[in-house]
Amino acid sequence: MAILLDKNTRVICQGITGWAGTHHVTQMMEYGTKVVGGVRPGKGGRSHLNLPVFDTVSAARDETGANASIIFVPPASAAAAMIEAIEAEIPLVVTVTERVPQLDMIRVREALAGSRTRLVGANSQGVLAPGVAKLGVMATGSERPGGVGIVSRSASLTSEVVAQVSDAGLGQSTTVGVGGDPIHGLSMRDCLELFFADPETEGVVLIGEIGGFEEQEAAEFIREAKPSKPIVALIVGAHAPAERRMGHAGALAIGGAAAASAKIAALEQAGVRIAPSAGLVGRTMADALAKTH
User: Fold this and answer.
1) Which letter, b or e, does each residue of 135-171 get, where b requires 16 or more Cβ atoms within 10 Å of its Cβ?
2) Would you please indicate which residues are annotated as catalytic (active-site) residues?
3) Which residues of the chain are in CATH 3.40.50.720 domains?
4) What CATH number labels 10-120?
5) No. of H helices and E strands in the chain?
6) What is the DSSP letter of 65?
């Protein structure tokens, strides 16, 4: 069973008429995702990709029964789009937009407090339940249905790990890209809690990187929860120069707790198996699952 989405998930796209929205929504529909409409202020009443377009999220929700939204809106307007979806009580919102201003994301986090919405992102590659639905921009082809949940801050490494897990004959229950920006919605800890509660997820891969303290928060939760499911982690950036951004807006290690070594130590202390290299994540998870059976 997937987390966050299933075959009954009804998706709208905010920013559907732009190039990115058009391209990725087309791929999502080809994958089998139930996309039911789009939102573009000023273009309500038209159609795009044979889907109805609405001026507002609330109108789209009322007309289509949508319970999820994916956002392809430029950074300067992305926060307003997220807040509109939150106020429309859309249960799941995925934001692909990268480098949303941090002060804007603080406003989004305030809107999330006490709401009915789970926000994935910003700067997320999305959520993928193999063979069920794709809500994002990730490449497909190497994924397989299975029992390994993947939560990641890195889109490219997610694709690599998905391929390894499939090659190991395990497959994935769901992959979730929490987002690479410093301030985002759903956290690694939140995803772990969902995966631990999912009876069909047998093990979890956590892909982290330098910057922030999210991996330490996940480690603390693992120590408290004491899950029976094995957890394998890959933390990248051990050799990154200090005080220099490394691609992701959130990947900046100033040293101390934000460094890869501190994150690895915290996870090891929580009983997490650390993959020795990016090329051995699938094998490490296969070995871990074999020891639990």
Assistant:
1) bbbbeeebbbebbbbbbbbbbebbbbbbbbbbebebb
2) 248
3) 10-120
4) 3.40.50.720
5) 9, 14
6) -
Q: Is the peptide bond before 122 cis (omega within 30 degrees of 0)?
A: yes
User: Hey, is 70 helix, strand or coil?
Assistant: strand
Gap between the Cα atoms of 128 and 66, Å rounded: 18
Backbone angles phi, psi at 273, to 5 degrees: -80, 125
d(CA 238, CA 235): 8
- C-beta of residue 180 within 8 angstroms of C-beta of residue 248: yes
Whether the CB-CB separation of 79 and 104 falls below 8 Å is answered with yes
pLDDT at 147: 98
Which pLDDT does position 253 carry in this prediction? Answer: 52
Picking from 76, 71, 84, the residue whose alpha carbon sits closest to that of residue 111 is 84
**Mean pLDDT per 10-residue section of the chain, whose length is 293 residues:** 94 98 98 98 98 98 98 98 98 97 97 98 97 97 98 95 97 96 95 97 96 94 97 85 58 65 95 96 97 84
Which residue is associated with the tokens 């058009």?
22
User: Which residues have C-beta within 8 Å of that of residue 290, sequence separation ≥ 6?
Assistant: none
Residues 6+ apart with CB under 8 A from 47: 53
Q: State which fold the 141-292 domain adopts.
A: Rossmann fold (3.40.50)
pLDDT in the model for residue 246: 56
Q: How many whole angstroms from its chain centre is CA 153?
A: 8
* Among 241, 237, 233, 248, residue whose Cα is nearest residue 99: 248
Residues of the chain with CATH 3.40.50.261: 141-292
Distance separating alpha carbons of residues 159 and 186, to the nearest angstrom:
20
Degrees (nearest 5) of the Cα angle 126, 131, 134? 20
